[in-house]
Amino acid sequence: MQILPFYMVCDESGSMSGPPIDAINSALPELHHEISTNPTVADKTRFALIGFSDDAKVLQPLVDLGELAELPALTAGGVTSYGHAFRTLQQCIEADVAALKGEGHEVYRPVVFFLSDGVPTDSGWEQSLKDLTSSRYGPKIIAFGIGEADTATISQVANFRAFMQQDASVSPAQALREFAASLTRSIVRSAGSIPADGGSGFTLAVDDTVPGFSTVSLDKL
Description:
Blueprint lengths: L1 E10 L7 H19 L1 H6 E8 L3 E8 L19 H20 L3 E2 L3 E6 L8 H9 L6 E6 L5 H7 L3 E5 L6 H20 L21 E3 L6
Parallel strand pairs: 1-2, 1-4, 1-5, 5-6, 6-7
Antiparallel strand pairs: 2-3, 7-8
Helix pairs in contact: 1-6, 3-4
Protein backbone atom coordinates (compact mmCIF):
# COMPACT_ATOMS: atom_id res chain seq x y z
CA MET A 1 0.00 0.00 0.00
CA GLN A 2 1.08 3.59 -0.67
CA ILE A 3 1.15 5.74 2.48
CA LEU A 4 1.31 9.53 2.80
CA PRO A 5 2.85 10.57 6.16
CA PHE A 6 1.28 13.85 7.25
CA TYR A 7 2.68 15.97 10.09
CA MET A 8 1.01 18.93 11.78
CA VAL A 9 3.63 21.04 13.60
CA CYS A 10 2.14 23.84 15.69
CA ASP A 11 3.62 26.67 17.73
CA GLU A 12 2.70 26.31 21.41
CA SER A 13 4.40 29.50 22.62
CA GLY A 14 2.76 31.66 25.28
CA SER A 15 1.39 34.07 22.70
CA MET A 16 -0.84 31.26 21.42
CA SER A 17 -2.73 31.19 24.74
CA GLY A 18 -6.45 31.78 24.55
CA PRO A 19 -8.31 32.06 21.23
CA PRO A 20 -5.46 30.84 18.94
CA ILE A 21 -4.79 27.56 20.75
CA ASP A 22 -8.51 27.11 21.50
CA ALA A 23 -9.34 27.49 17.83
CA ILE A 24 -6.93 24.86 16.62
CA ASN A 25 -7.93 22.47 19.40
CA SER A 26 -11.56 22.88 18.37
CA ALA A 27 -10.60 22.10 14.77
CA LEU A 28 -8.63 18.93 15.53
CA PRO A 29 -11.78 16.81 16.10
CA GLU A 30 -13.07 17.95 12.69
CA LEU A 31 -9.78 16.96 11.07
CA HIS A 32 -9.87 13.62 12.86
CA HIS A 33 -13.43 13.01 11.67
CA GLU A 34 -12.73 13.99 8.05
CA ILE A 35 -9.73 11.68 7.76
CA SER A 36 -10.93 8.71 9.77
CA THR A 37 -14.37 8.51 8.13
CA ASN A 38 -13.18 8.92 4.53
CA PRO A 39 -12.00 5.43 3.49
CA THR A 40 -9.69 6.63 0.72
CA VAL A 41 -7.99 9.15 2.97
CA ALA A 42 -7.85 6.91 6.03
CA ASP A 43 -6.26 4.04 4.11
CA LYS A 44 -3.60 6.17 2.46
CA THR A 45 -2.77 8.73 5.20
CA ARG A 46 -0.95 8.54 8.51
CA PHE A 47 -1.09 11.56 10.82
CA ALA A 48 1.21 12.96 13.53
CA LEU A 49 0.96 16.05 15.74
CA ILE A 50 3.99 17.91 17.12
CA GLY A 51 3.80 20.93 19.41
CA PHE A 52 6.75 23.23 19.93
CA SER A 53 7.84 26.29 21.88
CA ASP A 54 11.23 26.27 23.59
CA ASP A 55 11.16 22.49 23.29
CA ALA A 56 9.33 20.08 21.01
CA LYS A 57 6.87 17.36 21.96
CA VAL A 58 5.43 14.57 19.84
CA LEU A 59 1.85 14.86 21.01
CA GLN A 60 0.61 12.19 18.61
CA PRO A 61 3.04 9.74 16.97
CA LEU A 62 2.28 8.83 13.36
CA VAL A 63 -0.92 6.82 13.35
CA ASP A 64 -3.95 5.74 11.37
CA LEU A 65 -6.57 8.12 12.76
CA GLY A 66 -9.20 5.44 12.38
CA GLU A 67 -7.53 3.69 15.31
CA LEU A 68 -7.86 6.69 17.66
CA ALA A 69 -10.84 7.93 19.64
CA GLU A 70 -9.49 11.50 19.68
CA LEU A 71 -6.39 13.61 19.15
CA PRO A 72 -4.49 15.21 22.07
CA ALA A 73 -4.87 18.93 22.69
CA LEU A 74 -2.19 21.58 22.22
CA THR A 75 -1.19 23.65 25.25
CA ALA A 76 0.47 27.08 25.11
CA GLY A 77 3.60 28.09 27.05
CA GLY A 78 7.25 29.04 26.58
CA VAL A 79 8.77 31.02 23.73
CA THR A 80 8.89 30.45 19.98
CA SER A 81 11.86 28.24 19.07
CA TYR A 82 12.13 26.52 15.68
CA GLY A 83 15.33 24.49 16.02
CA HIS A 84 13.90 21.86 18.36
CA ALA A 85 10.82 21.50 16.16
CA PHE A 86 12.79 20.82 12.98
CA ARG A 87 15.19 18.41 14.69
CA THR A 88 12.34 16.49 16.30
CA LEU A 89 10.45 16.42 13.02
CA GLN A 90 13.44 15.04 11.13
CA GLN A 91 13.93 12.29 13.70
CA CYS A 92 10.24 11.37 13.54
CA ILE A 93 10.12 11.30 9.75
CA GLU A 94 13.23 9.14 9.42
CA ALA A 95 11.97 6.65 12.01
CA ASP A 96 8.41 6.63 10.66
CA VAL A 97 9.38 6.12 7.02
CA ALA A 98 11.77 3.32 7.97
CA ALA A 99 9.00 1.63 9.96
CA LEU A 100 6.46 1.95 7.13
CA LYS A 101 8.93 0.60 4.60
CA GLY A 102 9.72 -2.22 7.00
CA GLU A 103 6.03 -3.13 6.92
CA GLY A 104 6.21 -3.34 3.13
CA HIS A 105 4.55 -0.03 2.28
CA GLU A 106 5.55 2.45 -0.39
CA VAL A 107 5.91 5.89 1.18
CA TYR A 108 5.17 9.19 -0.50
CA ARG A 109 7.25 12.23 0.32
CA PRO A 110 6.00 13.39 3.75
CA VAL A 111 3.90 16.53 4.01
CA VAL A 112 4.15 19.05 6.85
CA PHE A 113 1.71 21.80 7.83
CA PHE A 114 3.77 24.22 9.94
CA LEU A 115 1.97 26.92 11.92
CA SER A 116 3.64 29.73 13.86
CA ASP A 117 2.42 32.97 15.42
CA GLY A 118 5.79 34.51 16.28
CA VAL A 119 9.41 35.01 15.31
CA PRO A 120 11.87 32.30 16.43
CA THR A 121 14.01 33.29 19.38
CA ASP A 122 16.67 30.62 18.92
CA SER A 123 19.78 31.09 16.82
CA GLY A 124 20.87 28.40 14.37
CA TRP A 125 17.39 27.15 13.54
CA GLU A 126 18.10 27.70 9.85
CA GLN A 127 20.65 24.88 9.91
CA SER A 128 18.08 22.55 11.48
CA LEU A 129 15.67 23.45 8.70
CA LYS A 130 18.33 22.83 6.05
CA ASP A 131 19.17 19.47 7.61
CA LEU A 132 15.48 18.54 7.53
CA THR A 133 14.74 19.56 3.95
CA SER A 134 17.97 18.10 2.54
CA SER A 135 17.59 14.79 4.35
CA ARG A 136 16.72 11.59 2.51
CA TYR A 137 13.01 11.97 3.27
CA GLY A 138 12.88 15.78 3.26
CA PRO A 139 9.19 16.81 3.43
CA LYS A 140 7.01 19.21 1.52
CA ILE A 141 6.39 22.06 3.96
CA ILE A 142 3.29 24.24 3.88
CA ALA A 143 3.81 27.11 6.33
CA PHE A 144 1.14 29.35 7.86
CA GLY A 145 1.94 32.53 9.78
CA ILE A 146 -0.52 34.25 12.10
CA GLY A 147 -0.30 37.01 14.71
CA GLU A 148 3.23 38.36 14.99
CA ALA A 149 4.79 35.85 12.60
CA ASP A 150 7.26 37.32 10.11
CA THR A 151 6.56 36.93 6.39
CA ALA A 152 10.21 36.42 5.49
CA THR A 153 10.60 33.72 8.14
CA ILE A 154 7.44 31.87 7.12
CA SER A 155 8.49 31.97 3.47
CA GLN A 156 11.93 30.67 4.43
CA VAL A 157 10.39 27.70 6.21
CA ALA A 158 8.02 26.81 3.37
CA ASN A 159 9.13 24.91 0.29
CA PHE A 160 5.68 24.14 -1.13
CA ARG A 161 3.16 26.80 -0.01
CA ALA A 162 3.31 29.80 2.33
CA PHE A 163 0.40 31.79 3.75
CA MET A 164 0.26 34.79 6.07
CA GLN A 165 -2.64 36.11 8.14
CA GLN A 166 -3.95 38.91 5.96
CA ASP A 167 -4.80 41.67 8.41
CA ALA A 168 -5.68 42.40 12.01
CA SER A 169 -9.39 42.28 11.22
CA VAL A 170 -9.12 38.49 11.04
CA SER A 171 -8.73 37.23 14.60
CA PRO A 172 -6.23 34.43 15.32
CA ALA A 173 -9.18 32.17 16.11
CA GLN A 174 -10.78 32.87 12.70
CA ALA A 175 -7.45 32.47 10.95
CA LEU A 176 -6.82 29.13 12.60
CA ARG A 177 -10.26 27.87 11.72
CA GLU A 178 -9.62 28.82 8.10
CA PHE A 179 -6.28 27.04 8.33
CA ALA A 180 -7.89 23.89 9.74
CA ALA A 181 -10.59 23.93 7.06
CA SER A 182 -7.97 24.30 4.33
CA LEU A 183 -5.89 21.51 5.82
CA THR A 184 -8.88 19.16 5.92
CA ARG A 185 -9.95 20.01 2.36
CA SER A 186 -6.42 19.46 1.11
CA ILE A 187 -6.14 15.96 2.53
CA VAL A 188 -9.59 14.92 1.36
CA ARG A 189 -9.10 16.32 -2.15
CA SER A 190 -5.60 14.93 -2.46
CA ALA A 191 -6.62 11.41 -1.59
CA GLY A 192 -8.18 10.95 -4.99
CA SER A 193 -4.84 11.62 -6.66
CA ILE A 194 -2.98 8.93 -4.70
CA PRO A 195 -2.82 6.05 -7.23
CA ALA A 196 -4.27 2.75 -6.12
CA ASP A 197 -2.20 0.75 -8.61
CA GLY A 198 1.28 1.54 -7.34
CA GLY A 199 1.77 4.57 -9.56
CA SER A 200 3.67 7.63 -8.39
CA GLY A 201 1.53 10.48 -9.71
CA PHE A 202 0.48 11.89 -6.35
CA THR A 203 0.03 15.66 -6.20
CA LEU A 204 -1.06 17.35 -2.99
CA ALA A 205 -4.18 19.40 -3.75
CA VAL A 206 -3.49 22.43 -1.56
CA ASP A 207 -5.55 25.57 -2.02
CA ASP A 208 -3.69 28.43 -3.69
CA THR A 209 -5.76 30.85 -1.64
CA VAL A 210 -7.12 30.58 1.89
CA PRO A 211 -9.75 33.05 3.18
CA GLY A 212 -8.19 35.35 5.75
CA PHE A 213 -4.66 34.73 4.49
CA SER A 214 -2.41 36.25 1.86
CA THR A 215 -0.35 33.91 -0.28
CA VAL A 216 3.42 34.29 -0.28
CA SER A 217 4.83 33.61 -3.74
CA LEU A 218 7.75 31.26 -3.19
CA ASP A 219 9.18 31.82 -6.66
CA LYS A 220 9.82 35.47 -5.76
CA LEU A 221 11.76 34.77 -2.55
